[in-house]
Amino acid sequence: MIFFRFKFVAALIAISGGIFISESVTLACASCGSGGDEPLVLFPAEAIKIHGSVSLTPELESTGPDGATLQSTGPDRRVNSTFAVGLAWSPRGFFTVAQSLTTNSRAVVGADQAASGRASRSGVGDPSFSGRYTVLMPQLSRPLMPQIQLLAGYRPAIARSIHDSSDAHLLDVFGSGFDEIRAGIDLWLGMLSVKPGVALTATESLATRHNGTLLKPGTLIRLTASLSGIAPIGDFGIGAQPVKLTTGITSDRRGAASADHEIVQNSEQAVNGAFISADISAWESDGIKLTLAQQGVFGVVKNSVASQNWSVAWARVLR
Amino acid sequence: MRAPVFFASCLAVAVAVAVAACGEASPDKQPTPPEAIQSPGVWLTTNGSYEVYLVWVTGPQTGMDNVVRMNIRPLGNATLPLQQLTVTPWMTVHGHGSGNVQPLVESRLDSAAGIYLVSNIFFVMSGPWDLKIALTDGTTSGAVVIPVTVPGI
Q: Is residue B29 part of a domain?
């Protein structure tokens, strides 16, 4: 796993360098600062857009308060399919609704080969309702003036969580168990050929009673720093479609949880991640996005999960 | 266009340096050492109504095959046998328990003497756990939280 992380960082830095080579090429960028956090974002000219994606998390490592890896009986692989619809109410703002379908699986070691294999369960996750509003639009005359978007979201806890799981391997866990409210700001220099961006979001989980205890996770703060640009890729005889690369790092910090209104000592969470994604235009109104993300790529992973995630997303502008 | 390139380059270098620096400082994550810290000794309920002595028959380990024997001694006005004894494994720092998999309390040993066997204690992962124990004789109640370190491989 450590070897994989170093490879990932090396690839990340190498491709970051590739972005700078092509400073003469510019491509529009929407909601760039937050990188791949949103499943679906709309450009100002788009009114309705649909999205479908499949992501694979081939390995998950839970960690404790000291950062040590914990042995878990839970899933060791996860496949997540997400479907989303985005609707613009003005050139400045849009809503998105997203729903995921998750398949958790785990290797099962039986008495013989016939009894061994993988056990899996599928179920719907918590839906997501979110919106973005651009408070500062791009200005050709002022390329160093950042575009600024405000964002907000709500994720109701309707899926089964670890608190009401009845599977010994937690294969039936598809949700967080807490209603979540998210708000934040996303800003990026969209007029530049190489677009730096920053996003800051805060997610507040609502206190919920589980197993007789009123639980409330701490506030999650996510900071994302990203760079977007055009990759210097030739047409390879299949058409000169530009490829937009976005790379960046994320830092997640969650404050201490509380149980029955009392702070739980040593329950803070921390994990840093990195991501890189490639956007490719396909046909007239479709787009393909490939993303590789890793949580726990550097620093201590405290009370969290280190994981790697590969995803393929497709989006189509309907209007 | 030199200024934006310079700005972007600085950001990239900062990211690369941060990644490299943090990567070096990060300790290699190792599984929790196997020397389990069980919970020897006597634990007193928060109101001092009962003493609880706990011995692991099997475990603690990840999975479901954990069994513990409890010797419970009433203090003051508290009496035996207990009318109710509940045991809840709880991973406090992660804020979760073991879902709907609940421990089974058996009183066939000698409940009149305060000896109880609790099986089906399920730890979904290694690390620092608590056993939340609540007990009552119908009149006097007590509660105690006993820390348990569940070792990794």
A: no
